[in-house]
Design a protein that fits this description.
heterodimer, A: 266 residues, 3-stranded antiparallel β-sheet, 9 strands, B: 304 residues, ABC transporter involved in vitamin B12 uptake, BtuC, binds adenosine-5'-triphosphate, binds magnesium ion
Chain lengths: 266, 304
Amino acid sequence: MHTAETTPLLLAVRDLNVAYQSKVVVWDADFDAPFGQLVAIVGPNGAGKSTLIKAALGLVPIASGSVRFFGLPYAEVRHRVAYVPQRESVDWDFPVSAVDVVAMGLYRRLGWCLPVRRRELDLARAALVKVGLADYASRQISQLSGGQQQRVFLARALAQDADLYLMDEPFASVDAATERAIVEVLRELRASGRTVVCVHHDLPTVPEYFDHVALLNMRVVAQGPVSSTFTAENLRKTYGARLTLLEEAAQAVERARVSLQHREER
Amino acid sequence: MNWTGLDTWIVITGVLICMACALPGTFLMLNRQSMLGDGISHAVLPGLAVAFLLTNSRDIFPMAAGAVAAGVLTAVLTQMVQRFGQVESGAALGVVFCGLFAVGLILIRVASDKVDLDADCVLYGSIETAVVDVNLVPRVAWISGGLLIFNALLIAFFYKELRLAAFDPALATTLGFNANAIRLGLTVVASVTTVLAFESVGSILVIAMLVVPAAAASLLTHKLHWLLALALVLAAASAVLGHIGAITLRRFVGGLFGQSDLGATSSAAMMAVTAGVLFLICWLVTAVRQFANRRRVARDSHRS
Ligand SMILES: Nc1ncnc2c1ncn2[C@@H]1O[C@H](COP(=O)(O)OP(=O)(O)OP(=O)(O)O)[C@@H](O)[C@H]1O
Ligand SMILES: [Mg+2]
């Protein structure tokens, strides 16, 4: 186990404020991504989860606060960070093939003006194999299902070969088999010393998939190891007192307890 | 048909200009900014007027500089209105170019007290008069040829970046390819193209060529390199068929009314119309193909 001193914070967000026009969306947020863990960011719709990630990457302007990746400003470590946007953020009718999209992850290494070559395409195909889309490489993206599109995005991030992955809802609208495939990929990343931060919506699976969790609703309500942080009390603070959600949260916490017990028994 | 050297130059110039417009037009479409050409062609009016008021001359260089500046201003203002006014891009563009056009009209009024600067001649160039030239190769042919080569080279160099910024601007930016800068660069190219092209062929043809070949090609293919190639072919075909159409129509109308020649049927306008007709044909082809596919699927499922 790392001690506090030796654990480098791959991503450290301090006192972050983000506002669209005059509307504050993220308020005084502190967020850490510890090394080598799968980290979930959970919170209700409109809580500012996507905004937190985009602000950290400089995609939306920050009102105040600081963001450090590996202790450095983002501009200096771009190549070590891969971003997987929410699937709806792009037009899937765009005329490109799956392998073209994955190869985009390698453009930085290529540099300006140089064309995509055989080598990049081979690397992109290898990434598609990892997510189980070997047969779909030359398919146009408009002819892929939602789950396949999501995996193309994942493959693109893999091709970037980063140390820190920021993924916005990688499990959105995928079926159970695809979800398992994605979780498998995330675990392999963790096993090879990478850190993955996911915006995640499905509360019941949080304890099963993730090690660390941040609960966000404009402010960071709580963050820390799943075992101590993912509690009914914190979920209530995050999601408010809406009945259905509380039930869901209660179930999730119950499952968390059970699955943690399982883990400990093993 | 009475084909003269003039007709040849009209067709050559038309083909070059149409192809030069179709290239940035394809990427504008992919950026969902197709109407930008329309906006720019209106917004250049104040640019021309200001350039004239500042330099007091109608030289091509200050005029072109003013027009390009106005074109870029349109694009930047549109982005700002969209971001800060929280309206969708079409509405933002509408606000900006109508505003600039109005300012332009007022300025032209002011300027025209001093000298004859006519709004019509700014908006409707004429390819027929433009190719009448004392030189062996008319100036507009040089300009349009140069423009085509320039645009083709730019797109060849920045193909990968343009595609990335159009498909996923957020990824582009995180990879260090500033998507806003790339899109703005495309806008500048489109402005320069629009301004240089419509001086000779008029704004209607330029607007049509920025939008229609790309839209028609996108019905036929899902691959970007084919999209560009087909857009170029359709643009060239519009120019050739458009001019032939203009000649034929002139004769036909002339015969009908007993006049020998009605010069008013502008070739540039016919080229734009032809592009529209080609779009319609592409659309029909796609519709028929889809219908046939559906029929076949229905029949196969019936059999099994
Ligand atoms: N570009 C924008 N302009 C103005 N307001 C925005 C913009 N993007 C998001 N917002 C607002 O900011 C708030 C947070 O949005 P954000 O997308 O970060 O939420 P989220 O937690 O990712 O939600 P979801 O679970 O639905 O993805 C929302 O209230 C949203 O309406
Ligand atoms: Mg979101």
